[in-house]
Structure formats: C-alpha cells, structure tokens
Design a protein that fits this description.
Mean pLDDT: 85
Number of strands: 5
Largest sheet: 5 strands, mixed
Radius of gyration: 15 Å
Low-confidence stretches: none
Distance between the termini: 25 Å
Structural class: alpha/beta
Number of helices: 4
Length: 151
C-alpha cells in the first residue's frame, strides 16, 4: 500500500504519493478547493487510484513550534479525512516545505507561471518525503540522494 501526502491550504490541496516500497514521494496533482464534500471526494478517488492506506497532512507550525489558526484548520481537516476515507491519518510538521519547494523550482529555472501551478504538489512531496525518511526502518540503507533511475 501507499501513502498520500497533502499540503492543505485555503484554496488548494497539493497531493503527492509514495512509491510502493515507501521510499520516495512523487507529485500527483493539485486539488482546487470548492467544498469540503468535493475535496474529500477528490481525495477518496486519489486514495483508491493509488491504493493508499494512509494520509500524511502537513501541519503548519510557527517557527517556534507553536500552533496558529492554520494548524487548527489542518487538524480539523485531518479529522474530516479520517472519518470520510477510513484510512490512517497523520500530521507532519511542514515548516519550510513551501520554501524548500520554491527554492527547488527556482534552482531548476522553472517559470513563475509553472511554479504557481506545481508549488502545492512540490510542497506535498517535501512533506511526504520528510515523513517517509523519518519512518524508514533502521535496517534500510536507502537514501533518496543515492537513487539512480537509470540502471
């Protein structure tokens, strides 16, 4: 089974998914938010499509670790996802995930228009990859920087 990673925002939800081994996160899509019911239906469809049995939602903490209104909204959304999808949901500290995603896109010389299209997906990928790295079994010697897609 796989894990979905979400960057939950007021207007969009960035979505990423893990590979089957739970080693790497890949971008999937950005959901344009319309209503809670529609958002949850879109996530349920993605969870089925990718055979996901867990969802990791970014928890936007302040730099000092405290929670503000966006963290409270993310916690409520996590409860909604749990009830609606019936899968395990975890919250993961997402501090600086959007900054890291933006930096990566800038370094890749991605245009401003394209960055706007994919930033939420990239942030979801950073959130999920952080969670995957932290939950990797200790006997796994894999590191994402070591991955070479060309054998």
């Amino acid at each position: 089974m796989r894990t979905l990673g979400l960057d939950f925002g007021t207007k969009t939800i960035g979505v990423a998914v893990s590979d089957g081994l739970g080693l790497t996160a890949q971008v999937v899509t950005t959901i344009r938010r319309t209503s809670l019911k529609a958002d949850l239906a879109a996530l349920a469809a993605l969870a089925r499509e990718h055979e996901a049995d867990r969802v990791v939602i970014g928890l936007p903490l302040n730099m000092d670790g405290t929670e503000g209104p966006r963290a409270e909204a993310s916690r409520k959304f996590a409860d909604d996802v749990t009830r609606s999808l019936g899968v395990q949901v975890e919250l993961w500290d997402e501090r600086l995930s959007t900054v890291a995603a933006t930096r990566t896109l800038l370094e890749a010389d991605v245009s401003r228009a394209k960055r706007k299209e994919v930033i939420d997906q990239m942030a979801a990928q950073f959130i999920l990859q952080g969670w995957l790295d932290a939950h990797r079994p200790p006997d796994t010697d894999y590191h994402p920087d070591d991955y070479d897609p060309e054998p």
